[in-house]
């Protein structure tokens, strides 16, 4: 049996708990990933969403691909499974990003191909870009 966990890229996963004591920060997820590796966890799943549907659209959210690349460089055995939404990416760009992270991690990247289920993200690629641009400049 293998054990894994969802990385709290949203600062937690519970909708009915305002503060779970988990930050949506590089410092926190790096510490968590390293500690989980020490404890013998096999993998972490990294969600790909542009908007934080758990804590609210204005709450911080870590990017799945940047986070996976950074974790690949600071972990040694933890499998990094990114939940990828194909509708968010050009196929060639996605393939290049995945191949690069897989090389950085020495073969520890896995892809969990999922659908775009949240209508605010899935329906309008232009609005996703506008939201990302607005959030990154605030």
Give an account of the 3D structure.
It is a single chain. By secondary structure, the protein is α/β, with parallel strands linked by helices. It has a single domain, classed as TIM Barrel (Alpha-Beta Barrel). The chain is built from 5 helices and 4 strands; from the N terminus they run E-H-E-H-E-H-E-H-H. Strands 1-2-3-4 form a 4-stranded parallel β-sheet, with helices on one face. Helix 1 crosses helix 2 and helix 2 packs parallel to helix 3. The relative contact order is 0.16. The C terminus is likely disordered.
H/E element string? EHEHEHEHH
Query: How would the global form be characterised?
Result: globular
Largest sheet: 4 strands, parallel
- Please state the structural category: alpha/beta
Unreliable stretches, pLDDT < 50, 5 or more residues? 130-138
- How far apart, in Å, are the first and last alpha carbons? 44 Å
Name the CATH class: Alpha Beta
Over all CA atoms, what is the radius of gyration? Answer: 15 Å
Strand order within the widest sheet?
1-2-3-4
Structurally, the number of domains stands at: 1
Features of this protein?
138 residues; alpha/beta; TIM Barrel; four-stranded parallel sheet; 5 helices; 13% strand; disordered C terminus
């Amino acid at each position: 049996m293998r054990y894994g966990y969802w990385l709290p890229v949203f600062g937690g996963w519970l909708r009915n708990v305002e503060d779970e004591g988990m930050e949506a920060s590089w410092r926190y997820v790096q510490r968590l990933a390293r500690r989980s590796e020490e404890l013998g966890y096999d993998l972490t799943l990294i969600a790909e969403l542009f908007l934080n549907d758990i804590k609210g659209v204005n709450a911080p959210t870590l990017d799945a691909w940047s986070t996976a690349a950074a974790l690949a460089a600071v972990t040694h055995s933890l499998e990094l499974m990114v939940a990828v939404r194909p509708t968010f990416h050009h196929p060639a760009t996605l393939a290049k990003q995945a191949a690069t992270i897989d090389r950085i991690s020495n073969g520890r990247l896995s892809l969990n191909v999922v659908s775009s289920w949240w209508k605010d993200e899935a329906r309008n690629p232009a609005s996703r870009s506008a939201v990302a641009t607005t959030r990154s400049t605030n």
